User: What shape does this take?
Amino acid sequence: MKLTRRTMLGGTAASALATLTAPNFAWADSHGGMASIHTHINTLIAQYAGTAGDMPNASVKALYDRDGFRDYLEIYPTGELVDGFVWEPGMGAEFEGPYSKLAIKAPFTDYIPLAEGEVLNPDKTYRIGFVFHGFNHPWLVSLADTVAWEAARHPNIELEVIDAEFDDNRMGQVIDTWITKQFDGILLWPSREAPMGPPVDRAIQAGIPVVSLDRRTSSSSISSEVLGNFYANGLQQGLYLKEVATGGNMVLNRKDLGSTADSIRTGAFLEVIGHEAGFEVAGNYHTNSQRSMAFDATADALQASDSFDISFNTGGEEALGALGAIQEADRMESGDSGKIIILANDDAKEILAKIKAGEIDMVAPYTPLIGDIGLRALVGHIGAVEGMNEAPPKLILTPNLPMVTREKMTIEGIETLTPDEWPYAYGPVVSEA
Amino acid sequence: MNATTINAPRTSFMRKLAWDPLIWLILGIVILGSLTSPYYLTLQNFDTLMRSMAVIGLLALGVTVVLLTGRIDLSVAAIMIFSVILAVVLTNAVGEALGLRWLVKGSTFVGSSWIFVALTILIGGLAGLVNGIGVAWLKVSSFIMTLVMLTALRGGNFILSSGRPYYLQTPAIDWIGTATIFGVPFSFWVFLAVLVFLAWLIGATTFGRRIYAVGGNEKAAAYAGLKTDRYVLIAFVISGLCSAIAGVIFTARLRSVDAPLASGYELTAIAIAVIGGTALSGGIGSPWRTLLGAMAFAGGLNLLSIWGIGTWYQNLAVGLALLVAVGLSPASRQKIRL
Amino acid sequence: MIRQKLTQKVLDLPKTDLARVGVLIALLLLGAVLSPGYLSVGNMRIILLSVAGIGIVAYGMTLVVISGEIDLSVAGIAVLSGMVGAALLPSGSAVLVISATLATGICVGFINGILTSVIGIPSLITTLAMLGIARSLANILSGGQAAYPDAMPEYLWFGSGTLFGLATPIALLLIIGLCTIVLTQYSAFGRALYATGGNSRAAVLSGIPVKAVKITVFMISGFLAAMMGMLESARLSYINPAAFAGVELEVLAVTVLGGAALAGGSGSILGTLVAALIIGVVNNLLNQLGVSIYVQQVVTALVILAVVLPGLRSRIFAK
Assistant: This one.
């Protein structure tokens, strides 16, 4: 059994979920020869990665080299979607999040599809564990929502969800306990890459398929990785900025040094704007996804300099913190070109409201609504262990999503969406007090 | 006053053990576990259990020795990670001096495991020494000294590693992380070895009696001519060494080290020592009792995990157990000196 | 009469407090040299806002430490009381939400006090256990999920409103500071408090209700922890059950930097306030100079060590 699965993992990435997949001809036809947004953004990624070596902007290049972004970007996978899937705005299912109780429209529920009802052997109950960190975080609870939603569609899946509270060692112990309890499959959201490799390897050795969501582990034997589109995020932040400005002083609010989200997004952003000489890195902070830290850092940066034109944020929480500080200092209009330009990631409803209000300028969506893909892929792997179907490919990329701006724009061939055209925003609706 | 009550009745050790509520608690956990889950009494589960016990047990042993002197050590978890990270950096520097490339692919350590392990333990001892100098000679309160150490080393971890993980990929480190001897994980043997050594050092030597004397009544000990500072200093060095040894087996299991790992484990270590009956006021407790504390603590959490009970309820159980353990033990309900 | 007494008291201020004020002024001057506009009203406001929460909890911690105890549960109290308030948000009643939040803090503080002074469990253990218990109860109560008080302007006022022309957190920092200074320096309770921490047995013999004093300070500490939680949550419009990780150690650091000895019987609210400002100024300055938070951590640790080192203290602060 193990051998067959291994062989399959080593097989071509294009191997289809023969018994699970029902190709959706309707959209496949309508997209005859036109490049999808996913492919188009990948082309731009390749183009900017290729010219990263000769950036004319010394300030940007210095930071790019100092933090070794090229090393991270080089190994971050980009490529085609499973089974030639083409994503279009408007796709996906609507439901109420089992944990957050919020209305959710998940964009990718047709990706690696799986019909409602019993999975695999209908007489068997499949025990699946999902371990992650942080029910308190809107992004992460939405991720858990999509996992639980998919599990609830299949009566013979029994899901155990554990919050490891940002302790990597504890997450390892949870996985070890599931190995002991001979679970059928494990799904995880690893906070950091390095420490989660060994426990994943142990599960794989015990014959239990493991799928990681969003972030990666250091395991090379993991069954599948569902990857987000960090590269597309940072790239589009750069493209937008290059479109609306030719220069200015930037303050960067970044995530934990060494995290994938920081290295890929910030790196891709710098790769793009490094080609314009006018941008200057005036501040570089690690505010670790915390609104309060981004608030304090931005407040201090505003104080330190009268010329503050651009606020780049690797995440949504950071952008909201930066916005709060800029508003509190009454400096919204103090940028070089009038308004301070605020760039964000993470399409929380709160962020979209700020885009609509013209306070945040753009957001590159980074949707947490991908847990369902992971669960479906995991079921595919369990089926492969049982010899019922072929295994899904190891790398499961999620579609690159176009950026959201207040007014519709076309930037280097990317047609941006307006907040009203983006029904997938996650998190609570937050009104202005 | 308390030193005698601990040392004298070694003859009735077994009888005392039989009356110990902790023993009954541990037995209860094992019986309950085997009755309620088919997965409890499995080699796999005991392997997991022993591995988690080894790391927190080692940290708790170090804390126990410091607590016996009437001081506290909040820096054990920070020292554990710091000594490993600094050891990687220094070993790499040694490699460079020898003209060897011991850090490949940016952050994968493939150098000499022996130099690495020796340096880790040395650094742990030195960090303990700094704590000891601050507390014993410069008279900074141990709470503050080790809190400062905790903060500084946690920051230092990020500065040294630039926030990137170091992958530890040498055959010896891999062996430390995975090997079993007679079915028992190597890491647990290390824990037992340190335990037996400390139990001997504290329970059967003049040095140990003096540690108890310092913690029991420091003034009296000083009047009796004891150089109390020296014992406090050594206690912190022992704690630093225990942390570093824990660091080696902890990171070998994860085959990597990352700056923010094991945050908050210092409080777990203190809780285990206290559940084992070590008094915060000093002079009461022993390494053996800490073993029982570690067994009860890790065993209880393991059972809750087997039952599929989430971390929130586990944390609640730990808090309540801590209150009950100390509330029921009159010896530990004393005024403490921080 | 009263004014005369007050002047006298100000002159009596512990000299160490004056020395801390000197350090603070020196740091501000350094800031002014290194960074133009450092002494502007805007920047002062930023510094005060960044330390308001920590400072308010540190007042409570100072009282607990003066009484000879310690309170490690402040972060747990802040999140539990926040989530109790959050659970009542749907009621739409600001009075209910705010009073439930603060009352929860007082209740948990009361339990800390009972366990410590009546049952006799060392406060380090009581409050360490309470930290875990309160945090897990906050998670269980809220399902681990954050709440958003954005539709309750009264709640948000604590974070972003104004009081007497000052931002609410700053005004509260000053008002609560004044109240606790009066409580510790000019009331019978204050004398009982210092006596309790200084020599518990002597205090009992002289008729001071030591247990009641300790229970009271734990309740005040719980109240102020809940206040801090509300203030910070209101500022971000986000009540988070996982917030404030490790804040107890930051608060203790401020308290000790302010001159309170963990042995009990000494410490001052003014010293604590100045210490909070020193930390705020150092962090603000390092941020403006673009120093990473990791280096800031190390610098902060060294600043604390330098100030509490008894040898150095006698050199810097004794005169």
Observations:
- The beta strands of chain C are 162-163, 166-167.
- Chain C has 15 helices and two strands.
- Residues 253 and 298 of chain C are 13 Å apart (CA to CA).
